[in-house]
């Protein structure tokens, strides 16, 4: 079962890549739930609706080998191996971009920034922008449970499509697709956060090191009109409030609260010295 030509052309336009071997794209969009149904549908059936091998004696002996060969050639495969390859290509290209764009950053900061850019939420958002869900091949069960909108299914499909482009046309084509579909948007959204200290992670590491449990963040108030709100978040451990912080969104407020908590636990002077001593701040940013 091949993609309809109009759908293929429409998706290729969205991806910005024309496939020399469309089979790669079809496989990238094939969820594991659809494979049994797709393979059953490709086999010839008699009037009873059964495939020949389901009817005793229906396959002439001299045709068995030929049919097995045809089946091997035409059997559908899911996108899991492409997803595996796409994950590796994604990691390579995002790492390449960060090293080139921020040469002064440390390995630790590069790793944290890469994780922010290629997390499941980022891949899901990219897949949604490309409307990959419209083109997925899903089994009936997965279709009924909303598979076309599931974050994990779409994020996996995005990685598989990246691998399909890499296999079809090489690393340069994959690099261009990644920039257009994910990095350009993600870098813009994360620009204010990339390179900044992750106070939430630092606080959690400190709490765990002292055996104090897990930090809990809660919005305690929202100030101002909807288009220009300020969020106030309190951070607590075991029911005891450590600090609070404010920001233009919940993430900023949580980071501010975590910083205040760190300053309280470590001492403002010690925290400031630790941050100013970093060598991982990007120059000119």
Description:
- With 285 residues, the chain is mostly helical.
- It is built from 13 helices and 3 strands, in the order H-H-H-H-H-H-H-H-H-H-H-E-E-E-H-H.
- It has a 3-stranded antiparallel sheet.
- A hairpin with a 2-residue loop joins strand 2 and strand 3.
- Helix 5 packs across helix 9.
- The longest helix has 22 residues.
Short characterization:
With 285 residues, the protein is mainly alpha-helical. The protein has helices at 5-15, 22-28, 35-42, 61-74, 80-101, 107-117, 120-130, 140-144, 151-169, 171-190, 199-209, 250-266, 268-276; strands spanning 215-223, 230-237, 240-247.
Features of the shown structure:
single chain, 285 residues, mainly alpha, Ribonuclease iii, N-terminal Endonuclease Domain, Chain A, Double Stranded RNA Binding Domain, 2 domains, three-stranded antiparallel β-sheet, 58% helix, elongated
Task: Reconstruct the topology from this structure.
Blueprint: H1 5-15, H2 22-28, H3 35-42, H4 61-74, H5 80-101, H6 107-117, H7 120-130, H8 140-144, H9 151-169, H10 171-190, H11 199-209, E1 215-223, E2 230-237, E3 240-247, H12 250-266, H13 268-276
Antiparallel strand pairs: 1-2, 2-3
Helix pairs in contact: 2-9, 5-6, 5-9, 5-10, 7-9, 7-10, 9-10, 11-12, 12-13
The SSE order reads HHHHHHHHHHHEEEHH
* Beta-strand proportion: 5-15%
Helix count equals: 13
Largest sheet: 3 strands, antiparallel
The number of strands is: 3
CATH class of the largest domain: Mainly Alpha
Give Rg in angstroms. 25 Å
- How far apart the termini lie comes to 51 Å
- What sort of overall outline do the alpha carbons produce when their principal axes are compared? elongated
CATH H-level superfamily title of the largest domain: Ribonuclease III domain
Q: Structural class of the secondary structure composition?
A: mainly alpha
Percent range of helical residues: 55-70%
CATH names the topology of the largest domain as: Ribonuclease iii, N-terminal Endonuclease Domain, Chain A
Overall tally of domains: 2
CATH architecture of the largest domain: Orthogonal Bundle
As residue ranges, the low-confidence spans are: 51-73, 268-285
Arithmetic mean of pLDDT: 80
Q: What is the topology, as strand order, of the major beta sheet?
A: 1-2-3
């Amino acid at each position: 079962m091949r993609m309809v030509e109009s759908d293929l052309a429409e998706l290729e336009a969205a991806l910005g890549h024309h496939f020399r071997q469309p089979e790669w794209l079809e496989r990238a969009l094939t969820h594991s739930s659809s494979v049994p149904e797709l393979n059953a549908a490709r086999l010839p059936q008699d009037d009873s609706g059964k495939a020949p091998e389901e009817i005793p004696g229906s396959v002439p002996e001299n045709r068995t080998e030929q049919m097995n060969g045809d089946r091997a050639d035409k059997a559908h495969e899911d996108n899991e191996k492409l997803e595996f390859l796409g994950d590796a290509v994604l990691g390579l290209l995002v790492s390449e971009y960060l090293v080139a764009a921020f040469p002064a950053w440390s390995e630790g900061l590069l790793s944290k920034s890469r994780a922010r850019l290629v997390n499941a939420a980022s891949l899901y958002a990219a897949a949604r922008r490309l409307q990959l869900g419209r083109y997925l091949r899903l089994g009936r069960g997965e279709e009924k449970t909303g598979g076309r909108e599931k974050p994990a299914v779409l994020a996996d499909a995005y990685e598989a499509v990246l691998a399909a482009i890499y296999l079809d046309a090489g690393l340069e084509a994959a690099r261009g697709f990644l920039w257009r579909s994910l990095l350009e948007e993600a870098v813009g959204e994360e620009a204010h956060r990339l390179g900044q200290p992750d106070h939430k992670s630092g606080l959690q590491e400190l709490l765990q090191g002292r055996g104090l449990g897990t930090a809990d963040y809660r919005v305690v108030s929202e100030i101002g009109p909807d288009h220009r709100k300020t969020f106030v978040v309190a951070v607590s451990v075991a029911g005891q409030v450590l600090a609070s912080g404010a920001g233009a969104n919940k993430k900023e407020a949580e980071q501010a609260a975590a910083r205040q908590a760190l300053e309280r636990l470590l001492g403002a002077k010690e925290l400031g010295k630790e941050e100013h001593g970093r060598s991982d701040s990007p120059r000119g940013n």
